[in-house]
Write a structure and sequence with these properties.
single chain, about 270 residues, mainly alpha, 10 helices, about 0% strand, globular
């Protein structure tokens, strides 16, 4: 939200999406490897249903804005729909469906287990080479934005797979997280763009997996709350910065966007609605 609202904590955006991706990989692979055959279809529908609903809402808003301001409606659609656009912030949802099916294929054909230091070193080396190639696509401005975004966060998918594969050994798990962070640091020093996703997300995920916290009833709804925040914040940003006296795009504007998005997303959790 800070990144999309161009607020004070905007640089954290790439790390946040990286962590979100690693979490998605973890829960997807855990579902696929636990013998639940319906997990794939259920997960795909849970991602595509909000994409279709919110895609329709955003298209209606953009067309309404074009008609109200005398702009070309086709130009508004061109900036939103691929290949000219990227579905705006909704690009993550169909991309996640594609990643889900890719992970399902990997789970069927690979063991996804890292049990030795040699296996970890091989996995990190493959992750490094693949990430450099993918981030070169991200850096190519002439390519369609939807393709560049898809390439940008595929390295985080690789990080998630490495962390999942090392889940059976705490020492290897920590080493995998540290190795991914160091890999990002090396690529950053080498001038590769898009490496911030490597810095904090792997270590945060490893810590989350290794530290058991008390569970409350409401914590089970935090995942859904997170998705709803992600969906509504696009419209919240539009409203906040369209106020008669819009806040400056600094900490003040970012805080307003966060609080308003959380309030709307919390209301969406009410079962009566």
């Amino acid at each position: 939200m800070q990144f999309h609202s161009q607020a004070a904590l905007a640089p954290l955006g790439e790390s946040a999406v990286g962590f979100f991706t690693i979490c998605m990989v973890w829960f997807t692979l855990r579902g696929l490897t636990s013998g639940r055959p319906a997990a794939l279809g259920q997960r795909a529908w849970r991602l595509m249903q909000p994409f279709l609903v919110w895609g329709a809402i955003m298209l209606a808003c953009k067309l309404g804005h074009a008609l109200a301001t005398g702009r070309d409606p086709m130009a508004e659609l061109w900036h939103f729909l691929p290949p000219g656009g990227s579905f705006s912030q909704l690009w993550f949802l169909p991309w996640a469906v594609g990643v889900t099916f890719m992970l399902a294929s990997a789970a069927r054909h690979l063991a996804l287990v890292i049990a030795t230091w040699g296996q970890l070193a091989t996995a990190l080396a493959a992750l490094g080479v693949g990430s450099v190639l993918l981030l070169e696509i991200w850096a190519e401005d002439r390519l369609p934005l939807i393709l560049r975004l898809a390439a940008l966060y595929l390295p985080s998918v690789g990080v998630g797979v490495v962390i999942f594969a090392a889940r059976g050994n705490g020492t290897l798990l920590l080493a995998a997280a540290l190795g991914c962070s160091m890999l990002g640091s090396v690529m950053g020093v080498a001038g590769v763009e898009g490496v911030q996703q490597f810095m904090f997300a792997p270590l945060l995920m490893a810590g989350a997996l290794m530290i058991r916290l008390r569970e409350f009833g409401w914590t089970r709804r935090l995942g859904q709350l997170s998705m709803d925040v992600y969906l509504v914040h696009v419209l919240v940003i539009a409203v906040v910065y369209a106020l008669p006296v819009p806040p400056p795009p600094t900490a003040v504007g970012g805080v307003m966007v966060v609080l308003a998005s959380l309030a709307i997303a919390a209301a969406m959790q009410l079962r009566s609605r």
